[in-house]
């Protein structure tokens, strides 16, 4: 094939045409499941029927129905992408490969974040050129979010967004060899909600055999809703829509209405006699499970899977600094958020205060959020996996402090992503309102972090010692 010709790949579902660029080959908007329209929005994903002729894989996919997200002064468009780009066929993957040549390269499958309500493969932060450059086939996945993806409804399977990710992994097993990837060496990795989904796969029996390694970036092994919590969200959604809480009733409602009712679901009190709110009121959607993934690892493939897991040191800053709440927060604000996320709020706040002796109320508020949303559930998952996997667990802590928003954003949620994807030098990240702020990133940090992720995908070893539950020390990155 001539280097300047558009590459064409034969897949089991049909032929797809991509593009050549400096990193290799890029194929976009390849469907891994049939379009979820009408009643099928609340059904399990089914295989795509395939196509005749040559499918155009040079243009981006539609995206799942989703609302616009506002993070105050911080420009989060590179994270969320363009928002809702309507089109029925959005259960798609993008594939970056050095060459669709039959090689057996490591495969990495990325699952985006966005609070279970937003996000897509079109986000600029998920530029996979560096992975292809380094000999990896990168697959990025769209999945159902919001009401179609995660609202628990009678007559519909739970966790449809997770079922989509499972379907995408099955597609990878059947198809990625055509793109030069090795289906026997698949690493699934995700960030935020995507990390919670990938972590849940470790406890999912149906996931056995679909991947070999997992990376959980700022997710939670204890982030699922209980069935009782999910019922509260479902009841509120049904009331807002004026229909019964069933898949049959919801199937008749257009996606636009599902987005219009999201404000009515925001901030629901999900505390119960047995559970706190694992998402601190920041999202009305999560996985719905009878037990948390970190407590159910023996049910899935976890014992045979290599795991790289970690958090950023100031995760909660994303939910405090851009909104202007770092200075305006009071002790009452700290205790209000603690009441949502701790069984014993006073003890929880005291523990955070002891770790941050000179912290302002805004800093304490951030610390409580970061620990509740990501830190505690990550530590629980790391401990649980290390106990059953025999030295297959590696833990990191990412501490590079973004200088965005007058130097205050710090090592917030999402800040590690440009380093993982090795794009930390992009100019659009380095405005005062850009994710990394006006200062240049450390020259070697992106290369180091990205190389660790690639090494883990190749061998299961990111370059540091396995986690010891008896001496729980994390590898520090960026500080």
From TrEMBL:
Carboxylesterase type B domain boundaries: 6-463
UniProt KW keywords: Hydrolase
PROSITE patterns per record: CARBOXYLESTERASE_B_1, LIPASE_GDXG_HIS
Entries under Pfam families matching the protein: COesterase
InterPro entries in alphabetical order: AB_hydrolase_fold (IPR029058), CarbesteraseB (IPR002018), Carboxylesterase_B_AS (IPR019826), Lipase_GDXG_HIS_AS (IPR002168), Type-B_Carboxylest/Lipase (IPR050309)
EC number(s) on file: 3.1.1.-
Superkingdom of source: Bacteria
Enzyme superclass (EC): hydrolase
Family per similarity comment: Belongs to the type-B carboxylesterase/lipase family. Belongs to the 'GDXG' lipolytic enzyme family.
Name assigned to this protein: Carboxylic ester hydrolase
Protein source organism: Prauserella halophila
């Amino acid at each position: 094939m001539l280097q300047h010709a558009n590459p064409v790949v034969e897949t089991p579902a049909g032929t797809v045409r991509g593009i050549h660029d400096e990193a290799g080959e890029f194929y976009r908007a390849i469907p891994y499941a049939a379009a979820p329209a009408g009643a099928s929005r609340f059904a399990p994903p089914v295989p795509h029927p395939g196509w005749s002729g040559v499918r155009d894989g040079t243009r981006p996919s539609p995206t799942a129905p989703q609302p616009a997200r506002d993070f105050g002064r911080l420009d989060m468009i590179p994270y969320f992408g363009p928002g809702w780009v309507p089109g029925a066929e959005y259960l798609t993957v993008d594939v970056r490969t050095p060459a669709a040549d039959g090689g057996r390269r490591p495969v990495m499958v990325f699952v985006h974040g966005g609070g279970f309500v937003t996000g897509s493969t079109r986000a600029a932060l998920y530029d996979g050129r560096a992975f292809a450059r380094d000999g990896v086939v990168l697959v990025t996945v769209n999945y159902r979010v919001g009401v179609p993806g995660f609202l628990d409804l009678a007559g519909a399977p739970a966790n449809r967004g997770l079922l989509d990710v499972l379907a995408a992994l099955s597609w990878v097993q059947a198809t990625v060899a055509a793109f030069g990837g090795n289906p026997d060496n698949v690493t699934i990795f995700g960030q935020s909600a995507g990390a919670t989904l990938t972590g849940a796969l470790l406890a999912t029996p149906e996931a056995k055999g679909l991947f070999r390694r997992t990376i959980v970036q700022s997710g939670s092994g204890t982030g699922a809703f209980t069935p009782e919590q999910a019922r509260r969200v479902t009841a509120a959604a049904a009331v807002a829509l004026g229909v019964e809480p069933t898949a049959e009733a919801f199937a008749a409602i257009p996606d636009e209405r599902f987005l219009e009712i999201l404000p009515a679901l925001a901030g629901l009190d999900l505390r119960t006699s047995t559970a706190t709110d694992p998402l601190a009121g920041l999202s009305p959607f999560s996985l719905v499970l009878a037990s948390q993934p970190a407590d159910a690892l023996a049910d899935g493939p976890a014992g045979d899977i290599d795991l790289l897991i970690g958090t950023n040191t100031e995760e909660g800053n994303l939910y405090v600094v851009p909104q202007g709440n770092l200075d305006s927060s009071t002790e009452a604000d700290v205790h209000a958020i603690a009441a949502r996320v701790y069984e014993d709020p006073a003890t929880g706040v005291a523990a955070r205060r002891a770790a941050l002796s000179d912290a302002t109320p805004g800093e304490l508020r951030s610390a409580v959020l970061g620990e509740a949303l990501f830190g505690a559930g990550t530590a629980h998952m790391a401990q649980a996996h290390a106990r059953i996997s025999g030295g297959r667990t590696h833990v990191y802590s990412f501490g590079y402090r973004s200088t965005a928003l007058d130097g205050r954003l710090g090592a917030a949620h999402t800040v590690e992503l440009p380093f993982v994807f090795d794009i930390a030098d992009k100019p659009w990240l380095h405005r005062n309102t850009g994710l990394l702020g006006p200062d240049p990133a450390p020259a070697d940090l992106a290369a180091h972090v990205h190389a660790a992720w690639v090494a883990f995908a190749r061998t299961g070893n990111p370059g540091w010692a396995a986690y010891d539950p008896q001496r729980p020390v994390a590898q520090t990155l960026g500080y």
